[in-house]
């Protein structure tokens, strides 16, 4: 049986925009987050406190966090690879910080410039500081279904990182398909393996749509009992350290499917479509959401 409620984490303002070449005005980023707040998300990944040399687009994260209109009950989350990032996130009053590692050594090196083991050591301080400051802690595992540099990734390699993030005290752990290569059987295999070590209710699915599999993979993960998913308005996005990776699954498509399944999300689809039109207009291209474009054309 499928879950009756799903928590959707909107990652468009972070994962969606981090790879854009042209600098997006901070006003546009703020309006995007505010529109998503109005649409009913309970968690919006709004910022990333990483090196501006590595990801220039996220350099305005502090200003975004400072000027968004915050709604009580909504978590505004931020990526924090190390203590420098955590201090910035704390100052910006992030409700949740994200430590992000990988299930593949090669990707860990390319993305955060250290090995998996080293990353866990860096995260230890961040995790401790988050607990001390009462900030929610989320962990993310890139390349859980395949890696652009090393290819196959075994479910046991994912489980190993899940256990390490669990031991750091993560309140939620994201199983990420960075390059969108998973298919439903792999989804079942990975969640079945990792759920032996960590509560299924606190595991999420963060699926990119590079191979057009994201929506069917969400359906497979729902069948496996997963009830937290990440998506990006207008299908924005791509990872700067995963060549050819496209955006996350489009939020509009996910909400449309969940609505059809009678699964409650608390999200106003029309408002998400409007937010998608807003940001796509700004970026000068059509939204990468089939449902969004169909609804907007009506
Ligand atoms: P490093 O060079 O090993 O770190 O980078 P370092 O500590 O030696 O610092 C080097 C320089 O960066 C120094 O500045 C630091 O001050 C600065 P300099 O002295 O040269 O002027 N620095 C920072 N500045 C601002 N904020 C910080 C920070 N830390 C150091 N927090 C580091 C290590 C992790 C910092 C670097 O590799 C980095 O920033 N990488 C960015 C990775 C990233 O953002 N990737 C995209 C997000 S992850 C993703 O999209 C995947 C996900 O969606 C899930 C999925 O789909 O798979 C989450
Ligand atoms: Mg991602």
TrEMBL record:
The protein's name: hydroxymethylglutaryl-CoA lyase
> From which residue to which does any coiled coil extend?
none
Q: Which InterPro entries match?
A: Aldolase_TIM, HMG_CoA_lyase_AS, HMGL, PYR_CT
Q: Which GO terms describe its molecular function?
A: lyase activity
User: Which PANTHER family has this protein been placed in?
Assistant: HYDROXYMETHYLGLUTARYL-COA LYASE
EC assignment: the record states 4.1.3.4
The pathway is: Metabolic intermediate metabolism; (S)-3-hydroxy-3-methylglutaryl-CoA degradation; acetoacetate from (S)-3-hydroxy-3-methylglutaryl-CoA: step 1/1
Taxonomy of the source species: Bacteria, Pseudomonadati, Pseudomonadota, Betaproteobacteria, Burkholderiales
Presence of keyword Glycoprotein? no
Q: Which family does it belong to?
A: Belongs to the HMG-CoA lyase family.
- Catalytic function, reaction form: (3S)-3-hydroxy-3-methylglutaryl-CoA = acetoacetate + acetyl-CoA
Residues in Pyruvate carboxyltransferase domain copies: 6-273
A Pfam match is HMGL-like
Could you list this entry's UniProt keywords, alphabetically sorted: Lyase, Metal-binding
Q: What class of enzyme is it?
A: lyase
């Amino acid at each position: 049986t499928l879950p009756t409620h799903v928590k959707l984490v909107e990652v468009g303002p972070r994962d969606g925009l981090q790879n854009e070449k042209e600098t997006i005005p901070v006003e546009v980023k703020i309006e995007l987050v505010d529109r998503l707040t109005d649409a009913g998300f309970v968690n919006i990944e709004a910022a990333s406190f990483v090196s501006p040399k590595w990801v220039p687009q996220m350099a305005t994260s502090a200003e975004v966090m400072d000027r968004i209109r915050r709604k009580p009950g909504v978590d505004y989350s931020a990526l924090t690879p190390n203590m420098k990032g955590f201090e910035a996130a704390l100052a910006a009053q992030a409700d949740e910080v994200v430590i992000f590692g990988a299930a593949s050594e090669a990707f860990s090196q390319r993305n955060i410039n250290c090995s998996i083991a080293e990353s866990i050591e860096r995260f230890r301080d961040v995790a401790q500081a988050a607990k001390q400051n009462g900030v929610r802690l989320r962990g993310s595992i890139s390349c859980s279904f395949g890696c652009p540099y090393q290819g196959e990734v075994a479910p046991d390699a994912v489980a190993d990182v899940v256990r390490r993030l669990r031991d750091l005290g993560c309140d939620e752990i994201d199983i990420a398909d960075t390059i969108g290569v998973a298919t439903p059987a792999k989804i079942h295999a990975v969640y079945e393996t990792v759920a032996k070590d960590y509560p299924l209710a606190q595991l999420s699915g963060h699926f990119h749509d590079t191979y057009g599999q994201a929506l069917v993979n969400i359906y497979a993960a729902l069948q496996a009992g997963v009830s937290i998913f990440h998506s990006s308005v207008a299908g924005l996005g791509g990872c700067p350290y995963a060549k050819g990776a496209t955006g996350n699954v489009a939020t509009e498509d996910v909400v449309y499917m969940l609505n059809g399944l009678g699964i409650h999300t608390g999200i106003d689809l029309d408002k998400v479509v409007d937010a998608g039109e807003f940001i796509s207009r700004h970026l000068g291209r059509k939204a990468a959401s089939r449902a969004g474009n169909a609804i907007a054309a009506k």
